[in-house]
Structure formats: C-alpha cells, structure tokens
Amino acid sequence: MSEQLKWFRSSYSNSEGGACVEVAFATRIYVRDSKVPSSPELRLTAPAWKAFISAVQPGA
Fold first, then answer.
1. What is the C-alpha separation between 32 and 22, in angstroms, rounded?
2. Are 22 and 15 within 8 A, CB to CB?
3. DSSP E strands: which ranges in 1-60?
4. Structural contact between residues 43 and 30, judged by C-beta atoms closer than 8 angstroms
5. CA separation for the pair 43, 60 (Å, rounded)
6. Which of 19, 21, 24, 20 is nearest to 44 (CA)?
7. How far is 29 from 26, CA to CA, in rounded Å?
8. What is the pLDDT of residue 24?
9. In the prediction, which pLDDT does 10 show?
10. For residue 28, what pLDDT is reported?
11. Is residue 33 exposed (0-12), middle (13-18) or buried (19+ Cβ within 10 Å)?
12. In a 10 Å sphere around its CB, with 0-12 CB exposed, 13-18 middle and 19+ buried, how is residue 31 labelled?
C-alpha cells in the first residue's frame, strides 16, 4: 500500500487484549485487527462505511 495511514483504535478496545479494531480514514476507510497489525485490511467506500456503522450501531 502506498498510502500512509494513521490508525485509530476503537474506544471499546482495552489493554488486556479485548476485542480490538482499528480504523484509518483516507481515500477509502480501512479496518483491521489491532492485535495483528500485519493482518489483512478491510477496505470500504464511504457509503459502505456508513452502512456498516448503521448496522452495528443502531441509532447512528
């Protein structure tokens, strides 16, 4: 990947190895498992990201 991404960890993540997700915003939205930074990234368009957030966070 040529884009330098700045990753943000979910506020629901914890330092004890809880369910950790990181997100980076660029030309697309990237999602990965923060416990394995070299893991594959899920790449979403802005409309797909909005649909994803609406599905996992009712009322958003």
1. 5
2. no
3. 8-9, 21-25, 29-33, 42-44
4. yes
5. 21
6. 24
7. 6
8. 92
9. 75
10. 92
11. middle
12. middle
β-bridge mates for residue 30, sequence order: 24, 43
User: Are 49 and 31 a contacting pair, CB within 8 Å?
Assistant: no
Within the chain, which residues score under 50 in pLDDT? 1
Structure tokens at 49: 């990201």
Encoded tokens for 44: 């979403």
SS3 24: strand
Q: Which residues of 6-27 are buried (b: 16+ CB within 10 A; e: fewer)?
A: eeeeeeeeeeeeeebbbbbeee
Place of tokens 């594959």: 40
